[in-house]
Amino acid sequence: MQFNKVTDKIVAELISILGQANVIVEAEKMEMYAKDEVSDRLWEKMPEVVVKPENTQQVSEIVKLANRELIPITPRGAGSGLAAGAVPLQGGMVLSLEKMNKILDVDTENLFMVCEPGVTTGEVQKTAKEQGLLYAGDPCSADSSFIAGNVATNAGGNKAVKYGVTSRHIYGLEIVMPDGEIVTFGGKNVKDVTGYDIVHLMVGSEGTLGIVTKVWLKLMPLPKYVADLLIPFADMQTAIKVVPKIMTAGIIPTCLEFMDSLSIKSAEMYLNKKLPYGDAGAYVICEVDGTSETQVQDDYETIGKLAMENGALEVFVADNMSTQERIWKARKCYAEAIRMISPVYCMEDIVVPVSNIPKAIEAIERISAKYECKIPSAGHAGDGNIHCTILRENRDDHEWHELKDAVLEELYEEVYALGGNLSGEHGIGAKRAKAMDKHLTDAQRKVLVTIKKALDPNGIMNPGKVLI
Ligand SMILES: Cc1cc2nc3c(=O)[nH]c(=O)nc-3n(C[C@H](O)[C@H](O)[C@H](O)COP(=O)(O)OP(=O)(O)OC[C@H]3O[C@@H](n4cnc5c(N)ncnc54)[C@H](O)[C@@H]3O)c2cc1C
Q1: Left if phi > 0, otherwise alpha if psi is -120 to 50, otherwise beta: which for 435?
Q2: Which of 86, 114, 363, 432 counts the highest number of beta carbons within 10 A?
Q3: Start and end of every FAD-binding PCMH-type domain (predicted)?
């Protein structure tokens, strides 16, 4: 695809749409828009201009201009992505949704919230909670990520085991299409089979099919009782083998997470705190919730018993907010804690059927030993989603790129052989586009390319992401 450069004339037109303050061209102010949370410089690129619309009409006018002038647009939420999806790798403009950050409606009768795209996930959760309601989307990045970023990546997170990933919480979207047309699909109806399910085509499309400018979110009653279990094990294989057993015990845990020994040790370093059984080979962390105290107690006792029968060293139960927060801080700081051991790393997001998690962990350990590199793992065990992170440590650029490419190639082959996929929740972005393409069948690729070409014939919407 041949794109044009952003000229002074185009900048002047953008200023006439948005005002001077919302059009950024100064290098030092654009630097933060040149990357996301991928730590490798390979995935950084300065935009030619950053625009910050304040309403949908302005988004539409910007997109019409970009489509006419063949300027690539990279939509951007909070930039917490882990796939280089919000990085303008083919130049052009970054369209930041940070100024469209209002909650427009909390409908406590129909159990809906309507938001602009730039509201943080944490703000959505907090606002729902203040009304005695639950917004069940819960990525570990909730404090920083934007709700439309979650929509665009179909974010998962801790509570996905019981409540599902973001797509399960979205009932309607307003979208600015690649030709600048504003269109709404879905809304406050819980059921809707009126035509194609465009809402769920847009969810997870990573800014390649349009820009999300309004979101209708599902709310639920807030569970009254919550308990968390921290379960240390002597080694990783014993720990991970208990996961399929818990998942088939007739209980649906809200969260079922794991951390390996290096992840536990780095969390201790990052938090500057001793954790219980800090020298354990692995933790399993489990949450159960419900409206009845007895039910919650029955559930965690069943899980605790199962864990002890299958090699747990101990079962710690946290049924109050402060101990629960301590447990979750250790799990949620995984990315920041890993950075303390190696500032450059490659965080992966593989997913396999739950019954194959022990085999996937075995494969990671085998690859780690073969290439003599550390690959700490943690993640959402209950839905088969493993965050394994290749650490650069002291390697030079050449050694690092060789190592990373070799490890990824072998890892993805193992994952597909186990019936898995290369991303469970972080998405494809630019970082995994080539690898995904390698594993697509011709028929799958044809469907994806046909959709992209039909909706975005000029290819201006986040080029180079998802599809190569
Ligand atoms: C510490 C940490 C923990 C994390 N934990 C999780 C986790 O538990 N689960 C999980 O799924 N992810 C997790 N992530 C990854 C990341 O937070 C999610 O992918 C998140 O959904 C990205 O939201 P964002 O607003 O930061 O989007 P960005 O990073 O800004 O963008 C991500 C993608 O969405 C597109 N996009 C953004 N906004 C829009 C819009 N309005 N319209 C169209 N396209 C848009 C961008 O073009 C890009 O392709 C974590 C990241 C970090 C750093």
Answers
A1: alpha
A2: 86
A3: 42-222
Separation between Cα atoms, residue 414 and residue 408, nearest integer Å: 10
The residue written with tokens 């995994």 in the block is: 432
Give the containing element (helix H, strand E) for 211: strand 211-218
Which string of DSSP letters, residue by residue, matches 147-160?
A: HHHHHHHT---TTH
Residue 87 near residue 76 (C-beta atoms within 8 A):
no
Instruction: Phi first, then psi: give them for residue 107, nearest 5 degrees.
Output: -100, 100
Q: Choose one of 121, 145, 154 to mutate for the ligand 1 pocket test, by most ligand atoms within 8 angstroms of C-beta.
A: 145
The minimum-distance atom of ligand 1 relative to the CA of 97 is: 41
Nearest atom in ligand 1 to 424's CA? 11
Q: Is 462 in the pocket of ligand 1 (CB under 6 A)?
A: yes
Which of 39, 50, 55, 82 to mutate for ligand 1's pocket (most ligand atoms within 8 Å of CB)?
A: 82
CA of 426 relative to ligand 1 center, distance in Å: 7
Domains of the chain: 103-221 (3.30.465.10), 225-335 (3.30.70.2190), 341-417 (3.30.70.2740)
Strand pairing partners for 95?
51, 75
- Tens-place pLDDT, residues 262-285: 999 999 999 999 999 999 999 999
Mean pLDDT calculated for residue range 66-88: 98
Q: State which of 60, 140, 345, 432 you would mutate to test the pocket of ligand 1, scoring each by most atoms of that ligand within 8 A of its C-beta.
A: 140
- Compute the distance between CA of residue 258 and CA of residue 132 in angstroms, rounded to an integer: 29
Structure tokens at 183: 């269109």
Largest Cα span, the chain: 71
Share of the chain above pLDDT 90, in %: 96
Cα of first residue to Cα of last residue in the chain, in angstroms, is 11
pLDDT in tens, 31-65: 999 999 998 889 999 999 999 999 999 999 999 99
